Amino acid sequence: MGIIIDDTDIEINSEFLQKITEKKERIDTLRPLPTDKVKNLLEEIKIKHTFHSNAIDGNTLTLKETKLVINQGITTGGKSLKHHLKIKNDYEAFNLMLEMAKSNTKITHETIKKLHVTVTKGLQEDAGKYRTTDIKIAGLETTPPPYNELPKIMDEYIKNIEKLKLHPVKKVVFIHHELVRIRPFVGGNGRVARLLINLFLMKNGYPPIILKKEEKNQYFRVLQYADNGHLSPFSTLIAKEVHESLLFYLSNLLEDEQLIPLKELSKDSPYSQEYLSLRARQGQLDAIKIENMWHSSKQALEDYILKMGK
After folding, report:
1. Is 7 exposed, middle or buried (0-12, 13-18, 19+ CB in 10 A)?
2. Which letter, b or e, does each residue of 284-298 get, where b requires 16 or more Cβ atoms within 10 Å of its Cβ?
């Protein structure tokens, strides 16, 4: 894949991108956000991010077991100690990312290496160091660049994060995909990429996102498409997660944006639960799945009814 030159090289449905922009602007009107509420939101996101990011990489700990490791330091019998350490490391790395976002830290070689050190502490001897060998990833059609080209390639990558004129959501696509395409480290590239995009999002006023284990196969598939120059599917996945995160934030900040199961929401609407579920799946009604159940808000339903002329 060549270097992305401008905003048109990464395609995201313009109507959907406008939805994201409007929700981000709505959050901006609420600033300064209530400290206690944001702290609780971030704690919930932190734990879920740690669980899902590790599950994507094959970690076998459940969400409940992840919470026990983080909150009480309790290990689960029969589960790998390495997997427990990865959970602790990623949780600590998320805290580091939050500190970086708060201090408006730029994405540099040092930033990337610090996140990698924290993610792979006690797991890799070369933690925080760019690889010094060539690697080939089984199942991938493309091969990461030779190790002796990494200094130049990573310099260019960091410069492009600063200079490319992209919508923030589109730049997140570039930041994530380009890092895992380059694979500057022997291991831990995916977990660092998922932290790095949250650093960029938070520095730009967006809430952090969670790439979920339920979408693991889709996630790897669209990354492979991106390796071959087809960025649209990965862009769509990232945009969806940004939109969901904005919905989640708004639902905790505003009463009319509170997320309600569609079964309950349909009772005071001209539509059935089944119809609203269909429109949610089609992306026509702002909604997200929580524990495999569609949720939306009174505001989203009002917006949909207005759009449909009801």
Report:
1. middle
2. ebbbbeeeeebbbbb
Tell whether the torsion through CA atoms of 251, 242, 57 and 107 is positive or negative.
Answer: negative
DSSP 146: P
pLDDT in tens, 99-112: 999 999 999 999 99
Percent of the chain predicted with pLDDT > 70: 97
Dihedral (Cα; 49, 55, 56, 59), 10-degree rounding: 130
Task: Classify residue 261 by its DSSP letter.
Answer: E
C-alpha to C-alpha distance for 84 and 61, rounded to whole angstroms: 8
* Stated pTM of the model: 0.94
Taking domain 7-253, whether its CATH number is 2.10.70.10 is answered by no
For residue 153, pLDDT beyond 80: yes
**Residues whose CB is less than 8 angstroms from the CB of residue 254 and which lie 6 or more positions away in sequence, other chains included:** 30, 299
**Do 261 and 255 meet the contact criterion of CB atoms below 8 Å apart?**
no
Higher pLDDT among residues 308 and 193, named by residue: 193
Distance of CA 270 to the CA centre of its chain: 35
